[in-house]
Amino acid sequence: MSHSAGMTCVRPFRVVLMGLAGLWLTACVASQAKGPVGLQPANDRLLLAGEIHVAEAHLRDFGVDPGPVDGLLTAETRAAVRAYQARYGLPVSGLLDRRTHLELLPGLDQPGVVR
Length: 115
Fold this sequence. Notes:
This protein is mainly alpha-helical. The protein has helices spanning 3-31, 49-61, 75-87, 98-104. 54% of the residues lie in helices and 0% in strands.
């Protein structure tokens, strides 16, 4: 077997390997969220249904419609949280984060409040 015959077998392998690597990288980039819409701040804990229910009731009291007050964190609830956050100068994330909780549920940071 000559040296050139061995190289012709290696070249297609390299081409296929490079093509697969390029395809994989393209898929990784394409699967990433586009712009700030896809970015979500991390929640520091899970919310209980009771906390969501109270937050929904308070959102309604503040004139923002969270949809049904049922303790479920739905798209309507998140939209209401975003509207509330925008109205009151909070970072707009749609999440019931600690800062939003403190504004939405007065007294939450008081000593003796059971969470």
